[in-house]
Every structure is written in C-alpha cells, then in structure tokens.
Specification:
Two copies of one chain form a homodimer.
Chain A (H helix, E strand, L loop, with lengths): L4 E7 L2 E14 L4 E5 L5 E2 L6 H4 L1 H5 L2 H5 L3 H7 L7 H13 L17 H9 L12 H13 L13 H14 L8 E3 L5 E3 L1 E2 H13 L5 H16 L1 H4 L5 H9 L4 E5 L3 E6 L4 E7 L4 H15 L4 H11 E5 L5 E7 L6
Antiparallel strand pairs in A: 1-2, 1-12, 2-3, 2-10, 4-7, 5-6, 8-9, 9-10, 11-12
Helix pairs in contact in A: 4-5, 4-7, 4-10, 5-7, 12-14, 13-14
C-alpha cells in the first residue's frame, strides 16, 4: 500500500494524527478526472453502494407494486441513525410487504443518534432490528422478495435470489466481476464484494447520469436520486454529514457513506462519480476527503462553499467545547 | 512520515483497512531494545502519562496528608469508564481535599461504559464532571493544590503552580524539554506536551525500575505502580484493555492508554519502557500493537500468552455477533 497522507489532525502547533487514502473520480465513459493513491486495489464498499443495491427494488416494479413512497425509497438507501422517523418508515415498508420486524436478519444495535438512544433507555426499552442502521436496506430486500413471490427467509445469504439479483445489479452498474474470492460478510450480515475504487466511481457516474444503463435501471436510478434528494434526513439523520451536505447542495450531489472510511458520490451535472477510501477506516477523514473533492469539482456559490469548507477543515473540540485543533485536508486535497 | 503498517483489519479473504505506527522500547539507561518507525518525532502522549503526572501528588506528601488510599491513587492515573466505583472514588478524593465536583475543570461527558450510561439515562440524570474519564487525575490535581495551600481555581492553565509542577515532573522523568511550542490543550483542558516516543519509553523504563529518579520520585513511582497493580479496575473499567491486561499479568506490566492511538507501558522485571503511537490515532490498532510488544518481550506462561494472543489478533464481529474478520498485528510485530 502506498497511499498519500490526505488528512491531518492537528493539536495546538503540531500535527497529532495522519490519515492516508485513495480517491477515484471517473466519468460515465470510464475516463479518470482525478486519481489519488492506489485506486486499482479491491476495497469493500460496505454501505456506500446501498443506492445501487436498491436498483432492483425499483427496476423490478416491486416498489410500485407495494406502493413505497419517496421517504421509504430513501430509507432503503440509508445508514440511518435510528431516530423515530427512520424506524417508523422501516416498519411501514415491512407492513406493505405483509411482514414485520421479525423478518429482518440484520441484528440489533443501539441508535447512533444520542437522543434517540437516551429516549429508548429512559423508557426502559432495548433496541430492535428496526434501529439497526441498515434496517431500511433490509426492509427493501424483504419488499423485493415478497413482491417477487420469493420466500424472504435467509435473504442475507449470498445464494438467496435477492442477493444474486443485487450482485448482478452491482456487476452491471460498476463493470466489476464480483466473485466469491472477493466476498466478505457485512456488518448487517449480507455479502459485501470488494472492487477497485475506479469501478465504484464509474458505477456512480453512470448512476448519476443514467447513462449506459439499461432503460429499467436508468429510470430506477433517476427515481432513487430524486427520492433521496427530497429526503436527505432519511439517508442518515440529525447532524450527519450525508444529510447536511445533501440538504445544502440538493440534487447537485448524491452521496453515501460506508463503514471503514468509504465514501461514494455522484455529481450528475458533471457526469462524474466519486469513490474514496481512507486506508485506516476512519470516518472523520473520509468525510473531510469527500468535502474537499466536491469543493474541487463543483462550481459553488458562497453559501455552498462555506458549507463544504466547514467539512474539509473542521475544529477538534475538548470536553469544555473549546477548539484545540483541526481536522484538515492536505497534499493533493489542500484548498 | 514513514511509519510501517503494523496492524491489518481483514474481512473475509481480504485486508480491509491498515494502520501504521511507531514503537520505542528503551531501557532505563536510554538504550533502545526495539525501534519501529519514526520514534524521534514529537507526539502528544495525552492520557498515557497520567501516572507520571501523578508523581508530584505522592512525592510532595499530599497523598499521605489527605489520606488517599490505593484505589484513589489508581484513579488519579486513570482514564476511567465512568462506572459507579470510579465516580465514587473521585468524589471521595475531592471530599478529602475539602472540595467537591464544582472545583473540577475537566468538563462533562457520558460514561464510556454502556451500562453506566444507560443507568444514568434510565434515572433521567445527566453526566457530571465526575463521569469525565479524567476526573480522577483532576481530583488528584485538586488534592495536590489544596495540600500545598494553593488555590485550585484555574488549575488547568499551563502557568498554574499545579501544571508547572507536573510539567517539571514530566521533564525530569522523560528527559524531554517541554516548551510552549510543543504544547497543545488536552481533551480535559490541561496542557499536553509533545515529545518523542524514545523519551516517553525512557521515562516509563525509569518509572518502572525506579532507577535514575530522585529518592522522592522513586518512592512515589513504586507506590503508584503497586496501587495500580492492586486496582486495575480503577485505571479503566469493565472489559477495557488496560484493566484486563493488568488483571491478567499483575505487576509484571504497568500500562496506560492515551487518546489518538498512544500507549505507554513499563515492564519492571526487564527494566524496559514502551511507548507507541498509531499514526492515524486508532485505539483498536494501538491495543493490538501493545499486546504484540508485551508478548515479544515478556516470558509468558500459557494462560498469559493466550490472553495476549487474543488482543494481538482479535475478531471483527457483525451485529449478529458472527466473526467476519480479524484485527491482527503484521510486519515487524507478526507473531
């Protein structure tokens, strides 16, 4: 591995920690607009490809058949914070498929959002699978299975028809070959397939432009992008990077985080896709990197630039809320 | 920066993330027993030097004058998880100084330990400064001030007599020169001074051996090490690396974590000190690195080796609690 330092964390007069990473920005023809670091190494996209994994749900007609609304479609692409709007939409999706939370196979964890977690604890409750950040994606898988008259039981297994369909969609959109030797198990128990950042960026360029996709996938991509742009809260939650950036930039940016420092984005007006990975898996660095990449490529007004600048260089605060340092992009990503 | 990859995080058949770092193992004469990466670059030790920062509390006679017990001394060296035993001991230390929580200047945060945080929320309470992971160290500063007839107000400022005394202790033990141009503000608002890993390791070799220290500091170091060895729970908390390792290895190891991927340790029977930093600040990597270093240097029985092996290579689990990968030391630290 030979990735450059792209983010520094300072404290007082010194750099305290350093994050390395790789970035690919590619157009819908596969031509590179920016390449930093080792972009041809396979990486696990994790949750960053949820929108691509949701394509069959829409393209198959399942979403229309079950009457899923835009907020629910956005939730199908989310890594949400477990706030009430999120868990309610997940429960609603399952109900439309004639199912409930017991059909989910994602496992339980406490809500990422502190107030939602505290509220649960104050009521003496414990988190359910609906609070899992992936419950919307999983509810989408259950909807796809039920609308296709397939038993959803075991839908997380690589050889279940749902995961076979999802893998085929990922292959079609990214151009990558997703074989067993590149397969891991994701945090929510579904397969995750490693592919180069160049393939991921290419896939998101096509997802954003609707170009070079089958007619069904092109329509599905457009509908998913509109659903997310209209419901940025449903994709993440209170104070989260994805939500705040898409609230601020609207449909100019589609972006999605993945665990272990991955980010993918589409910049439809430029026909570009972005995929990046922080080598050590740190989210704080991946967010700063993505903010810097968007700032470099998009033509921004002052309000938008201020928003992006605040993420490409953000304060480190101590427990008394004083600024004691900075997380900032450097090297190829410096302003 | 040119630090080697020392820890890999795998998922399925592939490496998903990589952590680089630097390690210094030094004896009480300053001779290196192991050097990996850039050990001469200044790094902020953060909380890893709390035991050295507690030396004046004991050496000055303040701890004896106020009747601090071993559990309280251990808490003065802790980054604790905010569990009841921790907050009670912090309150007790303050009471012995004729003070209470209002004198603390560390700020508030929720307990690191999930059950303790949940219990607070279930009672409708909010965390106080006693729950701050540094409250024991701060209570120690207040004890030092009060026993020395110094007003503790503003004790976190670099020019307060308490911090002047603490800085002088760090300089004496580590041999480093700690000037303003290497000073940052720590998470708990006190100064943190950057120094090379070699100086930190040298300081911990002397702290562990009691060698080449003034008679007062040598006695204080011995008392602090014994207090911590007898109370490993007070230094961290339920399930934490420091607590589990010192419970398992007893006085053979003194170790302490610091924020942003720092670890320091003393191996008294070998007269060695250890200091390491994960370049990107990740705790998961710093713990694996420290486990591998201890495993390499100490002569271990089977039980001890099994304990260390479990930290030098530990499973990554998904939300359904299945093993999906591994965090493991590699390169210069491979088994």
């Amino acid at each position: 591995m030979n990735n450059p330092v792209l983010v520094e964390v300072t404290r007082g007069p010194l750099v305290e920690s350093r994050h390395r990473g790789a970035i690919a920005v590619v157009d819908a023809e596969g031509a590179a607009a920016l390449t930093v670091g080792e972009v041809d190494e396979p990486i696990f996209p994790r949750s960053a490809v949820k929108a691509l994994q949701a394509l069959p749900l829409v393209a198959s007609g399942a979403a229309d058949e079950l009457g899923l609304g835009d907020a629910e479609l956005a939730l199908a692409c989310s890594s949400h914070s477990g706030e009430p709007a999120h868990t309610e939409a997940a429960a609603s999706m399952l109900a439309k498929a004639g199912r409930d939370e017991a059909t989910l196979e994602c496992g339980c964890h406490w809500p990422f959002e502190v107030k939602a977690a505290r509220a649960l604890a104050e009521r003496g409750e414990r988190p359910s699978q609906l609070h899992n950040n992936c419950s919307g994606k999983h509810a989408g898988f259950v909807c796809l299975a039920c609308a296709s008259k397939v038993d959803p039981a075991g839908y997380v297994a690589p050889d279940h028809p749902v995961q076979e369909t999802v893998r085929a969609a990922l292959e079609e959109v990214t151009g990558a070959t997703l074989t067993e030797d590149r397969r891991g198990v994701d945090g929510c128990s579904i397969p995750t397939y490693a592919m180069p950042l160049t393939c991921l960026a290419y896939g998101f360029a096509r997802f954003g432009a609707g170009a070079h996709l089958s007619a069904d996938y092109a329509r599905a991509a457009t509908r998913i992008r509109k659903a997310v742009a209209a419901n940025p809260f449903m994709v993440a939650g209170t104070g989260r990077f994805d939500t705040r950036l898409m609230e601020g930039l609207g449909p100019r940016v589609f972006l999605k985080t993945g665990a272990e420092g991955v980010y993918c984005a589409a910049l439809p007006e430029l026909g570009l896709g972005v995929a990046l990975k922080c080598e050590d898996g740190a989210t704080r660095a991946a967010e700063a990197m993505m903010a810097a990449v968007i700032r470099r490529f998009l033509d921004l007004d002052e309000r938008e630039r201020t928003l992006l600048d605040g993420f490409a260089a953000s304060p480190v605060k101590n427990w008394n809320k004083h600024d004691v340092g900075e997380i900032r992009t450097v090297g190829p990503l410096s302003a």
